[in-house]
Amino acid sequence: MTEHDLLDVAIKEARKGLTEGGVPIGSAIMDAQGHIVGKGHNLIFQTKDPTAHAEMCAARTAGIRNDWQSFTLATTLSPCLMCSGLITFYQIPRIIIGDDTTVPGARNTLSRHQISFEILNDPSCIDMLQTWIDENPKKWAVIEGHEHPNN
Amino acid sequence: MTEHDLLDVAIKEARKGLTEGGVPIGSAIMDAQGHIVGKGHNLIFQTKDPTAHAEMCAARTAGIRNDWQSFTLATTLSPCLMCSGLITFYQIPRIIIGDDTTVPGARNTLSRHQISFEILNDPSCIDMLQTWIDENPKKWAVIEGHEHPNN
């Protein structure tokens, strides 16, 4: 499974979120053998859980592990500081980012922790989220959060 | 409700975790009027959710809000980078830390984001967790995570 294949799994998750009436952001985690070990999508509106970012939901499905350091995580939107904190806490070494134009995310934090990341800026990630934001500005304002430029 | 009262709610949560067979770390959130709006304890072992740190669980019970900026969060253990990321994302301005001797947490991140924090180093927080760690070294190794000194 390539980086693009893994991002495709994350995009499918984002689409699931959209069909559920949520914000379309998805994430997927694969192990060193290319097997999916976790996937999920933003569930903030579906579950009223303010921590339910896509990366968090993907990690939840992966469960308790001691092999995080062999994983790659893909996410359709650049991870915020909370999700980057999750990534550095368990030392997931490699991140595939589908879109860092809508939100820059905490790339400085990933760099500071020697997490390798690739930014693909895939049009389907960008367009899907941007369309949702244009149609749901008030909902987006509630979940957008504060992103410090030095994150 | 004072800082110590709020920390007491967090300590009660930590004790609940202990009775459930989990790691005793608790958290509580109060609003500007001193009402508890969220509380929770670490549920990693109870629910096999690697993101279920006490602060995350407390925020989950608070739900979707637009008034995070008037809250104070107490936690029995200094928050890691993931939980500090949650705090900065929603801009919770004030944190009460029961113990920063067992784990230093991401205090630099809190400072960088102008989050005010008080470190109480309450013996009941420190002793309860340290006793658990001494009795459960293998479990602690699984959930300890990587804490960079510059966090």
From TrEMBL, chains A, B:
CDD domains (alphabetical): nucleoside_deaminase
Gene name linked to the record: tadA_2
Gene3D superfamilies referenced in this protein's UniProt entry, alphabetically: Cytidine Deaminase, domain 2
Species assigned in the record: Poriferisphaera corsica
Top-level taxon of the source organism: Bacteria
UniProt domain CMP/dCMP-type deaminase: residue ranges: 1-110
PANTHER family cross-referenced by the UniProt entry: CYTOSINE DEAMINASE, CYTOSINE DEAMINASE FAMILY MEMBER
Record keyword Endoplasmic reticulum present: no
GO molecular function terms attached to this record: diaminohydroxyphosphoribosylaminopyrimidine deaminase activity; tRNA-specific adenosine-34 deaminase activity
Keyword Glycosyltransferase among UniProt keywords: no
EC number: 3.5.4.33
Protein name, UniProt field: tRNA-specific adenosine deaminase
Alphabetized UniProt keyword annotations: Hydrolase
Enzyme class label: hydrolase
